[in-house]
Amino acid sequence: MPVSPVRRPPLLLELDLTELPVAPDPDDPLGRLRARGRHQLRPTLRALHEAAADRHVVGLIAKVGGSLPWAAMQELRVGVRAFAASGKPTRAWAETFGEGSNDMAGYVLASAFDEIWLQPSGGLGLLGVGIETTFLRGALDRLGIEPQLEQRYEYKNAADRIMRTEFTEAHRTALDRLAESIFEEAVAAIADGRRIDPARVRELADTGPRTAAEARDAGLVDSLGYRDEVYAALRARVGPDAELLFADRWRPRRRLHFPERRTSHVALVEVRGAIVSGHTRRGPMGRQVGSDSVGAALRAATDDDHVRAVVMHVDSPGGSAVASDTIWREVCRVREAGKPVVVSMGAVAASGGYYIACPADVILALPSTLTGSIGVFGGKLVVRELLERVGLNTGAVAHGARSLMFSSRRPFTADERDRLAATIDNIYADFVAKVARGRARPIPEIESVARGRVWTGADAVGVGLVDELGGLRDAVRIARSRAGLPADAPVRPAVHVRALARLRRPKNTEDPRAMAHVALPGLADVAAALGLPATWALRMPSITVR
Q1: What is the pLDDT of residues 246-290, one digit of tens each?
Q2: Would residue 77 be called left, alpha or beta, if left means φ above 0 and alpha means ψ between -120 and 50 degrees?
Q3: Catalytic residue chosen out of the listed positions 293, 351, 368, 373
Q4: What is the dihedral sign for C-alpha 111, 117, 120, 122?
Q5: What pLDDT, on a 0 to 100 scale, did the predictor assign at position 285?
Q6: For residues 68-90, average pLDDT
Q7: Which H helix or E strand runs over 421?
Q8: Rg (CA), the chain
Q9: Which helix H or strand E contains 269, and what residues bound it?
Q10: Quick check: 527 pLDDT over 50?
Q11: End-to-end CA distance of the chain, in Å?
């Protein structure tokens, strides 16, 4: 008697987009531990772009309303639109969009869905885009701390926040355009998604916030209802037996095949965090990406004959000029080896983040990516007055006229300040020249859009610092095309070091283990990642790995 095949139930994909899905580094064990139980960004994006082709997937439903970074929201929105293009229903529902606050980004994401539902007690804080800046100079003066910084040039706002008490004209102009660019993109997205005239969207933003009923009457949401009502309405359309599945748990069904062990592929190199010399590590201010680690990954991609192209994903505000220059050189070497390099920018790829991107064959950014900031600043904070106020005296001996030049206990002398200015000028000129070379444009053209100014990705395309708008999937598509690879060619990390291999000392600087940060997390870190009380770690013996 023949056996009937097992019938797969229809799948209704679920998303929780009230917070950003996580994207842990595969070579960061502690980060992967912290990410357990949370939605994963890359599998989520994959499902949004590919799951609609699965005949067993019948729809998509997502909880929205929350604080999301603009650029990441835009990448998710592109994925939702790709799924919706299949004709399968998509529903967004929210308890509220910014209760007593502005949730413009969350609503822009919701506008990509076919229908938006809002809880009757909720509201819609569609208010526009604003940027606030806190200036530190007044507090530093009260503390007795004097900033002595050189900046190149007037748009290098990071220095302004320390040296000044209010906006300069250049600082205000740059931030005003950033906010305007993001707002324009948001208005266009809402107008397209909700089929409302852009002028009407601006009017609705200028007269918000709104109650749930007012939002429905204005055409900003389709229906009012609670979670159970949203799910019931969608199940009535796709079938009551549809099984819920988190989108990042979806996997495509693949035919059994036996590929060669090593195949031609695209190598992915991640640059996430402040750029520093040495190995990638975690610092007091968050993740720091090391030039040694990134350089080793790029060298591995250069030397691997199976790597046909490199995609470098950059999400970095910059950092050390020297470390950035080290990475820049390795990117150039990949290109010199005949392998195309495509850069995909995340939320921010500015200053050093742009420095390392500029030699790439193609640069992509999201509309709200913060990029450019082709400039430099440096100097020191002088704490002499603060030390005197608290009764601390400093004695010093020195051999060499400038041995204490960067001491925080005394100001620069006039000749030291001149030497600092000359150094900053040299770094800036080198930065501009490298951008001009990478973008194949004259130095004066780059100078006009440099001077430390930050641009959105949308504006950066217009001034020639970025080639086109798109996310990581677009970068991979372009890399495959430029390398002559098939559309389904695999994408792999340039270097992957297994956890146990990290414990063995590398043989040399070319050993893949040399790029890994081998310091194991402390027990207190493990306890925190697992949600255990800190006292748990105190009951365990300390372990030192040498």
Answers
A1: 999 998 876 555 454 568 999 999 999 999 999 888 877 788 999
A2: alpha
A3: 351
A4: negative
A5: 76
A6: 95
A7: helix 414-439
A8: 26
A9: strand 265-272
A10: no
A11: 64
- 413 in helix, strand or coil? coil
| Mean pLDDT of all residues belonging to the chain | 88
Q: Which residues contact 280 (CB under 8 A, 6 or more apart)?
A: 273, 287, 288, 289, 290, 293, 294, 515, 517
Task: Specify the pLDDT at position 542.
Answer: 29
Q: What percent of the chain has pLDDT over 70?
A: 85
- The sign of the CA dihedral 531, 533, 535, 540 is negative
**How far is Cα 499 from Cα 512, in angstroms, rounded to an integer?**
12
Alpha-carbon distance of 59 to 51, in angstroms, equals 9
> pLDDT tens-digit profile of 182-233?
999 999 999 999 999 999 999 999 998 999 999 999 999 999 999 999 999 9
Active site annotation includes 403 = no
Torsion, Cα of 531, 535, 541, 545 (10° steps): 50
Report if residue 285 sits inside a domain. Answer: no
pLDDT higher than threshold 90 for residue 66:
no
Please report the beta strands in 448-496, taking only residues with DSSP state E, as ranges in sequence order.
Answer: 454-456, 468-469, 491-493
Indicate whether 319 belongs to any domain: no
Query: Is 351 among the catalytic positions?
Result: yes
Q: Judging by beta carbons within 10 Å of its beta carbon (0-12, 13-18, 19+), is residue 43 exposed, middle or buried?
A: middle
323 occurs within a structural domain: no
CA distance 59 to 43: 17
Nearest residue to 60 via CA among 71, 44, 73: 44
536 assigned to some structural domain: yes
* Residue tagged active-site, from 156, 339, 380, 434: 156
Choose the final residue of a domain: 189, 223, 249: 249
Q: Which two tokens stand for residue 31?
A: 């980060």
Q: Check if the beta carbon of residue 277 is closer than 8 Å to that of residue 322.
A: yes
Q: Quote the number of domains for the chain.
A: 2
Residue numbers of the domain that contains 534: 518-546
Give start and end residues of each alpha helix (H) in 66-167.
Answer: 70-84, 104-110, 137-143, 157-163
Domain endpoint, select from 199, 221, 249: 249
What's the pLDDT at 30? Answer: 56
List Cα–Cα distances, 515 to 23, 277, 299, 501, 520, in angstroms: 20, 12, 10, 12, 15
Where is mean pLDDT largest: 265-269, 389-393, 500-504? 265-269
| CA separation for the pair 297, 496 (Å, rounded) | 9
Distance CA 492, CA 504 (A): 23
